[in-house]
Design a protein that fits this description.
With 85 residues, this protein is an alpha+beta fold. The protein is 24% helix and 16% strand. The protein has a domain of 42 residues.
């Protein structure tokens, strides 16, 4: 089974699959505040706007980086999560 790491923010979740990463460095050179291989965790989603992160992830040549759009809660789910006194 392939190891997978997930890094969410409010809008998206970046997925990193280290087993297929070719370490091209395109992510770090393009958006070094988000993708810093010397930092742990090496992806910090708070360092750029979501669209900038999406644009950079799409440049990953190996496909080791990908992203998912986080689901917004439906109206029913939001109501269930609300406290009513």
């Amino acid at each position: 089974m392939q190891k997978t790491f997930k890094y969410p923010n409010e809008e998206i979740t970046v997925i990193w699959k280290p087993g297929i990463c070719i370490h091209s460095g395109i992510c770090a050179r393009g958006l070094g505040k988000v993708f810093d291989p010397k930092r742990r965790p090496w992806i910090d989603m708070s360092q750029a706007e979501t669209q900038q992160i999406i644009d950079q992830v799409k440049k990953c040549p190996s496909g080791a980086l990908s992203f998912l759009i986080n689901k917004e809660p439906t109206h029913d789910q939001a109501d269930q999560n609300s406290a009513i006194d």
